[in-house]
Amino acid sequence: MTLLRGLACLMFGVALGACSSTPETDSAGDDTQTGDTQTGDTHTGDTQDYSAQFAEGALPESIRDGGYIDSTFINHAGDRIYFLHSIFSPSVIAGGGSSVETCSHTQAEQLPGHVSTPGLEWNTDIYYVEWDGDVWSEPVNLGEPINSWGMECCMWLNEDETEIIFYSLSDLDNDDVDEDLGLRPTGNYRATRADRDSEWSTPVALPGEYGTDGQLASVWKTDIEKVPSGNLYLWEQNTEGDRLLVFGEMTGGTYDDPVYADPANIDGTTNYESQVWVNPEETRLVFNHRDASANTSLYARERDSAADPWGESITVSTTDFADGAGNNIWGEPSFDHTQNFMLMTRFDTSDAACWTPDLMVSFGDVSSGFAAPTVLN
């Protein structure tokens, strides 16, 4: 079976021996220590008790062991966590040399509702779990038409969860020709629904390069964040192999039928920057920066107003984010409306051939840093 090097590079932003611009990592990264005093279940200025919701192992058993979890997104209200899931280890998905047989001990059970067909059991679907005040629900598949036989990932939802933007990859054999099996073209799609429990509309590609134009296994634009102004924030891998942050300005039309300027790199962005989050006011960016060995640092940029230029990048302190092998490799940062904690998926590289996902939460903020994380799965 040929798996998806391009998808792994796109979603992890790392190599596993697969991405041409990022070599395989076999060295430990530094884990920044901080004097942050934030701890586990509460945070200064936030009176909510998270001791049960974000306890170690709080997520359902069905997503605790093995497989692949990524594209972690917590909703505005903080009671739903969206994520992608595959039964195979990230190391297998990446196509960097680890086989299904080698990583059979990390293979997960298939989650309910998985949209697939025989021979494609490994494709990724988008799910969510919901907090009811006492426990997290079992994973809920978003179903068709969001999920498909292709690889769905990299989602953003608006405040009331009636709008979704996500990435769908249909080049299943990694030959730079998409629409395999008659699937939709590879790229970013948008769908809407009446309320957060209603059926989704048929996804429609975003316009131009924000949607499906120019999307290849080695060139892409993804992880789109949309703000109330209609502007877009995302990242790309360009034709030179550089990974850079991108801004899409809404210049006309309406929120639901926008006109965008051509994608432009955010001033000051440098190679290996990816997976950006932006606050609704467009005054704070939080994003990942990776070195050549794939180890990750958390960066931020701020400004006084959306009309001002972005300030210089700062490194955000993270305490004990490294895995058991000493590596810091994680996916998209995500925040709810309080911005008092951060969710992300860290990849446990202790078994170098067969990575596994840790969906984790860390309390803190960009200014004071983030405390030692709790692994929820």
Put the structure in a nutshell.
With 377 residues, this protein is mostly beta strands. It contains two helices and 22 strands.
Write structural notes for this entry:
The structure is a single chain. The protein has about 375 residues and is mainly beta. The protein has one domain: Tachylectin-2, Chain A. It contains two helices and 22 strands. It has a four-stranded antiparallel sheet with strand order 1-2-3-4, with no helix packed on it. A four-stranded antiparallel sheet has the order 5-6-7-8, with no helix packed on it. The longest helix has 8 residues, at about 5-10. The radius of gyration is 19 Å and the shape is globular. The model is unreliable at about 1-5, about 15-20 and about 20-45 (pLDDT under 50).
Largest sheet: 4 strands, antiparallel
Low-confidence stretches: 1-5, 14-18, 20-44
Strand order of the largest sheet: 1-2-3-4
The computed structural class is mainly beta
- Apparent shape: globular
Q: Which range does the strand content fall in?
A: 25-35%
The structural domain count equals: 1
Number of DSSP-assigned strands: 22
CATH class: Mainly Beta
Tell me the CATH superfamily. Answer: Glycosyl hydrolase domain, family 43
Q: What is Rg?
A: 19 Å
Task: Give the CA-CA distance, first to last residue.
Answer: 29 Å
CATH topology-level fold name: Tachylectin-2, Chain A
Helix content: under 10%
Elements, N to C (H/E): HEEHEEEEEEEEEEEEEEEEEEEE
Tally the helices: what do you get? 2
Mean pLDDT: 89
CATH architecture: 5 Propeller
